[in-house]
Amino acid sequence: MHYSFGLIGKNISYSFSRGYFSRKFRELNLDNHTYENFDLETLNGFRALLADRPDVQGLNVTIPYKEAIIPYLDEMSPEAKAIGAVNTIAIQQGLLIGHNTDAHGFAASLRPHLKKYHTHALILGTGGASKAVAHVLEQQNIAYRFVSRSGKKQGLTYPELTGAIIKKHLLIINCSPLGTFPNIQEKPDIPYTRISEDHLLFDLIYNPEKTAFLAAGEAHGASICNGLKMLEEQAEKAWEIWKAPY
Fold first, then answer.
1. Active site residues
2. Euclidean distance between CA atoms 88 and 186, whole angstroms
């Protein structure tokens, strides 16, 4: 039997997942396993894709569909339901079951860098990944505010970020796509001059390895971490879910 897995997203030729799982399957000598990108302009073609590909056993979900995919699912894990976003789908006995492994990945990669004084955080961006980040911060009893251009989710807008706010929030997590290759000169518009050596800047982006956001923080003494470890951890958790039935 052939087992296919893949990534659902939009403009995903850059994706981490295809390379990661293709290597993994080679290392495990799983010659009957493949991983591919399913680049969808909209989710209208999602059901047709699954109908055409009965060999698909599991899917990852990325921007911009982590929330939009939910109505297409039959079930959701308790954690995915609590977070309100899905990045992994298991297909079991014809049912589409949504999971969120972003939270596991973020928690595992954040843990070694956290200090006792990281009690307040700013989450830059309000997409699906930011929901998993917020879920983890709640579990860690870290207070947080969202920051976005619109200020939604009772959050702040970028012009509202004063020096005092930056000084209070010593953990700053970029969940926006700003700075992703090839637009590597872009970064969130925050007052970097108020960053200190007590700050930890975490960027969910992994390409480039050091984003403009991280470089600006590091220049002011902050500790920094990119999203590569988070991606590896969430991918391994997805694999655990997919391989469970067989």
1. 66
2. 29
